[in-house]
Backbone:
């Protein structure tokens, strides 16, 4: 039996990888991909706890996370297309119109 | 024994593909490493008795979301020159790895307990995992299911409105200009 800690540690490392990607990369699409890595890390955690605590709630939450991720990808990529077509920016840090 | 080998394989490859996803220069290579990450996370779901999520992960994530990413990548030809590491990154890397190691020790020392639910692995395997997921989703989580449906409709409409060309080209418009 694999200990629950192993899944939690794996999910922790993957989440940190995704967070690092969001922080250091400036390419739009790779930032969105890092968000997907973070969502996957959260899914691993939810499913692992669902299995070890014998409850279906975690799997349900993971399914809804996948649905939300699909919506987020569609809207995020549409925003990227708008930004590129209007020649507003080529990097994430050049979008600063709303910066306070 | 076999389950340990499988877990080790899936965990190692998913961590490595995660690192490649954020570290490679070419965005298409990043997309392909993300594909490898998603497939190996799907393998982890099988180890956790969640075979419906395994199918959903491969069909929705690897099949739909990743194709969307690759389409946009190929349409936009996104190649940006970027230097994404700080000049003194070995120093920060050392500090980061030290903190990571300490947090991992804490994670492995924590006793995870809690009230157990009704869906023990034996019951789930007896009534088949996908069957149990369906029964739970359409009884306890029906309202959430409907809300997610409305959310997806809103996301589709939002994406279409955003990506629509601002002035629709008329039928007789000159295409050569």
Residues:
């Amino acid at each position: 039996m694999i200990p629950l800690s192993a899944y939690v540690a794996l999910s922790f490392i993957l989440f940190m990888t995704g967070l690092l990607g969001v922080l250091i990369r400036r390419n739009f699409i790779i930032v969105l991909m890092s968000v997907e890595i973070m969502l996957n890390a959260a899914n691993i955690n939810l499913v692992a706890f669902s299995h070890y605590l014998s409850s279906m709630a975690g799997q349900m939450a993971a399914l809804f996370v996948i649905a939300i991720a699909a919506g987020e990808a569609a809207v995020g990529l549409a925003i990227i297309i708008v930004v590129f077509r209007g020649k507003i920016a080529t990097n994430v840090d050049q979008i600063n119109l709303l910066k306070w | 024994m076999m389950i340990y080998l499988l877990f080790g394989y899936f965990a190692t490859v998913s961590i490595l593909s995660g690192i490649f996803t954020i570290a490679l220069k070419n965005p298409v290579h990043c997309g392909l490493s993300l594909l490898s990450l998603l497939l190996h996370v799907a393998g982890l779901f099988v180890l956790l008795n969640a075979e419906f999520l395994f199918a959903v992960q491969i069909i929705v994530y690897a099949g739909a979301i990743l194709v969307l990413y690759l389409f946009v990548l190929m349409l936009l030809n996104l190649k940006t020159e970027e230097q994404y590491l700080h000049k003194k990154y070995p120093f920060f890397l050392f500090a980061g790895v030290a903190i990571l190691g300490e947090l991992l020790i804490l994670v492995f020392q924590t006793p995870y307990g809690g009230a157990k639910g009704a869906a023990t692995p034996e019951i789930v395997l007896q009534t088949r995992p996908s069957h149990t997921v369906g029964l739970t989703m359409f009884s306890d989580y029906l309202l959430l299911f409907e809300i997610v449906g409305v959310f997806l409709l809103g996301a589709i409409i939002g994406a279409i409105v955003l990506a629509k060309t601002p002035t629709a080209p008329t039928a007789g418009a000159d295409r050569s200009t």
Chain A has a mean pLDDT of 89. Chain A touches chain B through 66 residues (CB under 8 Å).
